[in-house]
Write a structure and sequence with these properties.
Number of strands: 0
Structural class: mainly alpha
Distance between the termini: 19 Å
Largest sheet: none
Order of helices and strands: HHHHH
Helix content: over 70%
Radius of gyration: 17 Å
Number of helices: 5
Length: 140
């Protein structure tokens, strides 16, 4: 058992590594989008903020969604992408509904933010699937 993924401990390590690395590309894209649209002039703090938000949603919802997907034998990249979309889409929808009732003029921005967070979640789910399934070519 010399390879990192050939034992149960190696598989757990691979899943943990996938958990921590999966949100990184989405956070970078989120920071670039925020910077490019004039939302914030410095993208690095936004990337770090998005990274913490994605870690939080992974802990609160992502672990539950992952367990559901694996228990129901859903292991395709599309299903993990949809799980990631739900992981960030559900809480952002609730927040944005609350925020737009307080400030109705910001509803166009709310749709953009919802779309962005949904895409970032789907990207996180896909990245997790890709990183976790590299366990010697065996699906997660």
């Amino acid at each position: 058992m010399d390879a990192a993924g050939s034992s149960p401990e190696g598989a757990n390590e691979m899943n943990l590594r996938a958990f921590f690395l999966a949100p990184v590309p989405a956070a970078i894209i989120g920071g670039i989008v925020s910077w490019a649209t004039g939302g914030f002039p410095r993208p690095i703090p936004v990337v770090i903020f998005y990274l913490f938000l994605l870690y939080g949603t992974q802990i609160i919802l992502g672990l539950i969604i992952r367990a559901f997907l694996l228990r129901t034998n859903r292991r395709s990249p599309i299903q993990f992408g949809m799980g990631g979309l739900f992981m960030t889409g559900a809480p952002s929808a609730l927040y944005l509904v609350w925020a737009t009732t307080k400030h109705p003029a910001s509803s166009a921005n709310a749709l953009f933010v919802f779309a962005l967070w949904s895409v970032l979640g789907a990207m996180t789910g896909l990245c997790y699937w890709f990183l976790a399934q590299r366990h010697h070519g065996k699906p997660i």
